[in-house]
Amino acid sequence: MAPFVQREESWNAYSKLVKQRGKDAANGKEYWDAIKWYSEAIYLDSSDARLLSNRSLCWAKLNEAAFALSDAEACVRLRPDWPKAHYREGVAWRLLKNYLMASTAFSVAFRLDPRNKEIEDAFRDACKSWLDELAVKRPWDAERIRQTVTI
Predict the structure, then answer these.
(1) CATH code of the domain in which 106 resides
(2) What pLDDT shows up at residue 4?
(3) 44 with 22: CB under 8 angstroms?
(4) Residue 38 lies in a domain
(5) Domain tally for the chain?
(6) Is residue 82 part of a domain?
(7) 76, 86 in Cβ contact below 8 A?
(8) pLDDT digit string (tens) for 68-101?
(9) Mean pLDDT, the chain, integer
(10) Is this structure's pTM higher than 0.70?
């Protein structure tokens, strides 16, 4: 077997190993370890949106909202038609307490996957949080919106 073929096979095997270790660490709620492994996997294959989505989830679990958002936005750029990418973005915006942006991201996710109850619930919660926040800052607008929209 040619050396470059062996190198590619071992590279692919290592890539699979790193992805699996990230998944195992995340499933075991070892989020810092998972981030390390997913970062290595992303270095090996920066076009895999699932890796960015998974690392975004880990950042979110650690309340590292800015990092979660960065990965989610990169994920959306790679796969704009993937509901989970927009869902991850919504989660990050929600952690940042930007409920308008969160509801926008969840809305896109819900349009892409209208039967997903988790996305629907996240969208409703983000909208309610945004209206509650608006009620404090601009009560007249919040009341007008509440009268015209059912959440």
Answers:
(1) 1.25.40.10
(2) 44
(3) no
(4) no
(5) 1
(6) yes
(7) yes
(8) 999 999 999 999 999 999 999 999 999 999 999 9
(9) 90
(10) yes
Q: What is the extent of the structural domain holding 131?
A: 69-151
User: Do residues 23 and 54 lie in contact, with contact meaning Cβ atoms separated by under 8 Å?
Assistant: yes
How many Cα atoms within 13 Å fall on the side-chain side of residue 8? 5
Instruction: Round the CA-based radius of gyration of the chain to a whole number and report it.
Output: 19
DSSP character string of the chain = --HHHHHHHHHHHHHHHHHHHHHHHHHTT-HHHHHHHHHHHHHH-TT-HHHHHHHHHHHHHTT-HHHHHHHHHHHHHH-TT-HHHHHHHHHHHHHTT-HHHHHHHHHHHHHH-TT-HHHHHHHHHHHHHHHHHHHHH-HHHHHHHHHH---
pLDDT tens string 9-33: 677 889 899 999 999 999 999 999 9
Range 87-122 burial, b when 16+ CB lie within 10 A, else e: bbbbbbbbbeebbebbbbbbbbbbebbeebeebeeb
Residue 99 lies in a domain: yes
